Amino acid sequence: MTNLDLDPGTPDTWDRMLRAFTAELMDPRSGECLICYVARMLDSFGCDTHLRFASRFRDLTAPAAVALEGRLHRAGACCDCEIFLNGWWLDQRFWSATSPPARAAADTGATPPPVPLPRCAGVGRGSTQACSNWARRDRLGW
Ligand SMILES: [Zn+2]
Ligand SMILES: [Zn+2]
């Protein structure tokens, strides 16, 4: 097929489809919390050593939360993956025999093993807090 075969409306249709597809892949879901969103994005796209997805979440859902990066920095997270290295990890009720306690990983300084992500417990509109699936690592004792 050449461009001559395309009807004049097609580029616009493709553009809209691409945008819808991108939003489906890369936008926070309704009620999804910051931490679940970043975990889901890192799973697909990895960390670029910035708070890329945390900032995107804020821009799309809570643009007034300009202090978000500062709050994450204070939790030890200067990039998206450090949110999980230093800030939050799945609450202990999600740990199981098949997902070895993250303590072992913490002892070696490695990234905790991936655990199948539970469905986000949900937060209110405009919130940048973690949902109840997550616990602050300093409160887990490691
Ligand atoms: Zn990182
Ligand atoms: Zn969540």
Structural commentary:
- The radius of gyration is 18 Å and the shape is globular.
- The protein has a two-stranded antiparallel sheet with strand order 1-2.
- It has one domain (27-112, 125-140).
- It contains 7 helices and 2 strands; from the N terminus they run αααααβαβα.
- With 142 residues, the protein is mostly helical.
- 44% of the residues lie in helices and 4% in strands.
- The mean pLDDT is 83.
- The relative contact order is 0.17.
- The protein has helices at residues 10-26, 34-45, 52-61, 68-74, 82-87, 102-108, 137-140; strands at 88-90, 134-136.
- The structure holds zinc ion (ZN) (2 copies).
- Residues 47, 49, 79-82 line the site of one zinc ion (ZN).
Percent of residues in helices? 40-55%
Taken from the alpha-carbon principal axes, the silhouette is globular
Give the ligands present.
Answer: zinc ion
Number of strands: 2
* Structural class computed from helices and strand pairing: mainly alpha
Oligomer: single chain
Total number of helical segments?
7
For the record, give the distance between the C-alpha atoms at the N and C termini, rounded to a whole number. 59 Å
Average pLDDT figure: 83
What is the strand content?
A: under 5%
Q: Main β-sheet, in a few words? A: 2 strands, antiparallel
Low-confidence stretches: none
Outline of this structure?
With 142 residues, this protein is mostly helical. The protein is 44% helix and 4% strand.
